[in-house]
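Posting this for the archive.
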Amino acid sequence: MDDKGLYVEEPGYSRGAIADVDVAHELANLEAKKGRNAALTREKELAEGLTEAQKANLAIMEHVKEKYPDACDRLVDNRGHELLRTRYTGNSAREYASPVFLTQEGVVQIQESDDFAARVKDMSANEAWEMVGGVLKGKFGDWMQLGEKQGGRYPLSGRVIDVVGDEIFRGMLSRTLEKGQKVGLEVKKRTEEVAAKSDLKNVLAEL
């Protein structure tokens, strides 16, 4: 979308009025939750338009959110950048054994060192985006050392994975998400069962 498609260009409208109602709501909600700067950053991104690669990455993210809603955590940083972080880490060579982040700019795998308690799954959206943003500057497939060196080793490493052009990477991500969705549904079911058992009505009925 270029800036001509983003703004209303008819007489009677104020300068900078957003043409698309859904986009206007998105920006208003972002400003309410994250502040004016976050909304302005997002508006600038929309006005400047997206590359074909960014469009593909966003399409992948939307597909994953729709097909595997329980397989990922959705994170949004204070500038409005959205990340999806896989919850399940695979236990075979055909799945990703460490967290994968999906973003508008690309897909990144983060490897945690066994020697350190690097809690990638507990990172805030801002921490995650800072980490992932650094990895995205690298080349496809090349591992990048992350964090401060401890005891001669780095706690984390990351690499950009090409799920659009590489069938192997794409297949591994698909299997990881499928397993993650299955595990996520099982966890949700157990949580609901525990909640039901502790419900006051059920407690009283069993007394």
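The mean pLDDT is 81. Helices lie at 3-6, 21-34, 36-48, 52-67, 125-135, 167-198, 200-206.
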